[in-house]
Write a structure and sequence with these properties.
alpha+beta, Elongation Factor Tu (Ef-tu), domain 3, GMP Synthetase, Chain A, domain 3, six-stranded antiparallel beta sheet
């Protein structure tokens, strides 16, 4: 019977083929003399392919029994059955957009679902609420993203495109009502599963507070627990954040959830981290012909790096250079920030990239 190490190291098709040939040779058959395409060799190759597929399936089944190795649907099943937790699914962003009519334009009667607005990249939002835009006046409406995912967490002021035009009317996004999240990654899901056990004990550990905050509101993706009596003896601060910001109800939901579970003698405050905008200025030299690809990958890598940083992180210049040094980039000259950035325990980083691309 194979041991765990063997279960986690499946044989490739070539390895299975070699084992079959060795077995046949031991029985007196001449498998190395069979020509390519012969019936005998084809049957052996067919067996090798089938057994290799079976070994790959065996690997996934073996990995699926352990939190450290399970992935995808196998991790979902393990999380639900062993930890009573389901993976967070992607959600829809909701923002307030303000319609402004120029002098002499309006009134316009707007029904829910009639307007499509968004940004220059083509990310669209549809209005959930309606109303009347008065002559030369303004109207605030609630809009929801066309699709789920954190890509729709538009920075305020960047949603200025009306895909459903109204003469003399401009638009901009002014308030985040609910930030969107992507489907929870395997790594984040594993972390919540591990935090499940501390939350079940008596009293409250730092991990218990983290678990409660992450479970209270899906848009909360980062938590820092200040458990060193930050406001005096018996006090605990729970600092929360979500990529794209937090809606007005997210902190209140986390606070209510935690207050119901905390020890009676603990004085707990829950509040949002303070976003610190860090200007990232760089000259990026790249191979000619790869500009569009590099720009897209730089944007993605920098966003991924930002998401990986905890509240109160130290942002190292070397890590920023590494994030910008994507495929087909030859050199990165980082001019800002000039030094490593050390955030306070209640601050979270937000990168504003200004990049000059030079094809060589």
């Amino acid at each position: 019977m194979p041991n765990l190490q063997q279960l986690l190291q499946p044989r490739s098709r070539d390895q299975v083929m070699a084992a079959l040939i060795a077995f046949l040779q031991a029985k007196g058959y001449p498998p190395t003399d069979w020509v390519e395409g012969s019936v005998q060799r084809t049957l052996v190759e067919l067996q090798a392919a089938g057994l290799a597929d079976l070994e790959a399936l065996r690997l996934e089944i073996a990995k699926g029994g352990f939190l450290d190795t399970a992935t995808g649907d196998y991790l979902d099943l393990l999380g639900q059955s062993a930890y009573a937790l389901t993976r967070k699914q992607a959600t829809f962003a909701r923002q307030t957009f303000r319609l402004t009519a120029q002098a002499g334009f309006g009134p316009y009667s707007i029904q829910p679902g009639h307007l499509w607005v968004g940004n220059a990249a083509g990310l669209r939002f549809n209005n959930l609420s309606g109303g009347t835009l008065p002559l030369g006046g303004t109207l605030d409406l609630e809009f929801r993203a066309e699709s789920p995912g954190a890509a729709y967490n538009l920075p305020l002021g960047s949603g200025t495109i009306m895909f459903t035009p109204l003469p003399g009317v401009s638009i901009t996004n002014t308030v985040v009502l609910e930030a969107a999240i992507d489907k929870e990654s395997d790594a984040a899901y594993r972390e919540r599963c591990r935090l499940r056990w501390p939350s079940l004990g008596t009293g409250a550990t730092a991990d218990a507070y983290r678990y409660w905050a992450l479970s209270a509101e899906p848009t909360i993706t980062k938590v820092r627990v200040l458990d060193n009596n930050p406001r005096g003896q018996g006090t605990v601060d729970v600092v929360v954040w979500g990529e794209g910001g937090l809606g007005p109800g997210a902190v209140a939901a986390a606070d209510a959830y935690i207050q119901q579970r905390k020890p009676l003698t603990a004085n707990v405050q829950v509040y949002a981290a303070t976003q610190v905008n860090i200007a990232v200025t760089a000259t990026i030299r790249l191979k000619a012909g790869f500009l569009t690809q590099v720009q897209a990958e730089v944007t993605t890598r920098l966003a991924t790096f930002q998401q990986s940083l905890p509240i109160g992180a130290v942002v190292y210049r070397s890590a920023l250079v590494e994030a910008l040094f994507v495929t087909n980039v030859l050199d990165v000259a980082l001019t800002a920030p000039a030094t490593d950035q050390t955030l306070t325990p209640t601050q979270v980083a937000n990168f504003n990239l200004t990049a000059t691309y030079q094809e060589v």
